[in-house]
Fold this protein.
Amino acid sequence: MTMRLASFVANMTRMIAKKKSSPSKHQVKRAEWKLRRAGGLQILEAPALERIGWLVHGFSTRPGGTSELASGDAKTERVLNLGFTEWDSREHVEENRKKFFHAIGADKMRAVMLRQIHSDVALRVDSQAAESAEAPQGDALFTREPGSLLVVQTADCVPILLADTKRRAVAAIHAGWRGTLRRITAKTLGRMQMEFGTRPEDMIAALGPGIGRCCYEVGSDVARDFHAQFPNAREWFEGPFDALASGENDPNWLPWLTMMPPGHQPPPLRAHLDLIAANRAILAEAGVPPRRISSSGFCTACRRDLFFSYRRERTTGRLMAAIGIR
């Protein structure tokens, strides 16, 4: 019992020291990204991608749509919901998608989407795939096909857009904790290397809005899985990571020692995971220069005014990240 308490205290001490000594390690200046107003919407853009003349891209935000979402104060707000959800009508979603595609200059492009399943499946898009009526299952798309707009949907998971500046190839990736654990970004890059001759040093990677380390609380199952897959996983967690990864996460292992009545035992230990930092590290390990990897700096759970967050709201909309070759 004493050893477990000492381990917990040591982890909390390291967490506090880390916050005080190096708060900027996982933070990106938001000024590097910009919110552009177009067609009544706010479109978030990555400057490194915006400078490439042969592609279009954009990350959607919450305001400006035709959908009506009930808020906690018994009011409704008009939002740009881009996913087919139970609370919204298909007509509203389709109208919102038209507005979003128009705002990023992709009206005439073929939008290619997925049935996202939190996997490591990356699919190549060609003209036949782009014309297919049924969305395939997977969590990443890549192409060299002009006129194809690759789209992923999120509401806390990290949307990642890739561009090969030499071979004119692009990719869109949906990375939740399961996809991150399976290294979906590195596997997508690997597919592009095999099929297009892509070199990691020619890639630009933009990590869009996702739930931040500040808000993404996970338990022992996630901590153990990351500990088993990544030698440096501890760097992406705040909280009692060592105790969680080793299975020492149950404060009620001997209830009679806690002297608490049933139903009043302390909750299980939790830690906070930084999905942005994890995916940045995976891309860098795959050979993408760190200076060519950027992130928006926005947490979807913190910024309800700009984004949707399933963790925070449960009943919420869906964002889109899109990239394509003109």
